[in-house]
Amino acid sequence: MRRLLRTVALVVAGAAASTTVAHAQSKTPEFSYGKAEDAKVEEEGKDVVYKASAQAGFILTTGNSETVTLSGSAKASRKAGNNRLALEANGAFARSTIFVVEDDNGDGVLQEDEIDQIDQTTTQAWEFRARYDRFFGGEKNSGYVLGSIGANEPAGKELIGRGQVGYSRQLYKDDKHEIVGEGGYDFTYEDLIDEDGISIHSARLFAGYTGKLSDDTSFESQLEALLNLNSVETSVQDAGPLEDTRLNARAALKTKLFEDISFQASFTLLYDAAPAPRNYSIPFADGVSDQADAVDTVTDMSIIVNFL
Q1: What is the pLDDT of residues 272-287, one digit of tens each?
Q2: N or C: which end of the chain has fewer CB within 10 A?
Q3: How many domains does the structure of the chain reveal?
Q4: Which CATH number do you get for residue 204?
Q5: What are the tens digits of pLDDT across the range 117-173?
Q6: Could you list the residue range(s) of the whole structural domain that residue 177 is in?
């Protein structure tokens, strides 16, 4: 019976493996951090440990509703002694065709030339990141360095570069629960579309929790806060120190279907207190501007395949 239930769940999850994005400010961030389990390879008799996994989602509709949605991510890591290197790539793309009507002649009825179709790209975001952890003083402590590059054009960001450095500490761990805290410095450069780029220097605070609900099911949640230390100016807003706070929160439930295949459902909330100007194909007139939404959410259901 359990094998049958797992087979049914795999088929259903495969059909539903897609990403629904609201105001897609960014692809779902994977909050990489130094886990204590990565410092234990020597105790297990292993000199080097490799891990790799990938997940993907796809939706295509035609006819009265025409949409294409693609999402995917891949992770790989190498742990040798007290050194760990993790790589990650992710992206999301969504395009839709909508009908637009306008009563140009004002007669109260629609003519054939007053109905049009418009193709719109509603999501176009990608990111590549690399993180290095150096564990020291046992399994609970590590120093980390992270670098990433990406883009999110619907949110007005043609290129996003980021660098981080800091300290990670395991705050609590037992057989079923683990809590990790991190603190450090974040530098972000955003190349805004049709505007000069901005540089943001921030203090970074992070908390992560992992819980084991059963042998096959786990739950994790993360909260990252980036508190800007310098002033940030755009055409739509001037933000002083601590006025461009960014919050990234994520919760995920993962259950194993087979030995190397899992199903995951996650929810991500992204908050930017000083969002960038919106990007349109037509420039604004003098004195006119439009600001992107401060809050985005991402709901993701996907199949994960572990290769290593």
Answers
A1: 999 888 777 677 777 7
A2: N
A3: 1
A4: 2.40.128
A5: 888 888 889 999 999 999 998 779 999 999 999 998 887 889 999 999 999 999 999
A6: 2-35+132-306
